[in-house]
Amino acid sequence: KQITVPIGTDISKSAKTFDQIDKQKVVFMGHLREGQGVELIIDAIPEILKKVPAAHVLIIGGGPLEEKLQKYAKIKKVGKNIEFTGFIKEYSEVEKLLGDAALAVAPYVDDDSSFTKYTDPGKPKDYLASGLPVIITKISQVAFEIEKKKCGMAINYDKNELVAAIIKLLTNKSLLSEFKTNSLKMAHQYVWDKVFDRAIKETIS
User: Rounded to two decimals, what is the model's pTM?
Assistant: First the structure.
């Protein structure tokens, strides 16, 4: 008998309350490689700053594109508004950086070379576990679940849509707060204990 088991997560001990977060901080976490859409984030920053001048982006992670992306940020003249942490060994340190952000982005590239569309990516679950509203491209099923449960926004891989989504959340504190609350609720459905409990019950039923 075969069953499908979703990627799970653990609720972050570093998740902050709405009053404690940096309401201008946008975060990305992941391997800096092709297909992750970090270039789209950098392209979006100049337009975001026109409406939210204090907005800033934290890129958590390292990878083969790290140096290239840093140079691209300077070319786009947003070097002061974007910070690259490089690879961080301890995930507990990553959780601390995620915990005080306003929202997170997962702008996976939608093309034939991307394998994310055939997977259940773990990154969105980690964002939710830190209480972060998620802006995610529509290439995995979790994107539609996030939007349906009002934990974030599902968009196409399009700069204008990313800009609009980030500005909407950063300038609407009540919506941001609502999405943050809903994010933790959704994350609780995917804690590993519940994932395994459901899988075991389905296996023996």
Answer: 0.92
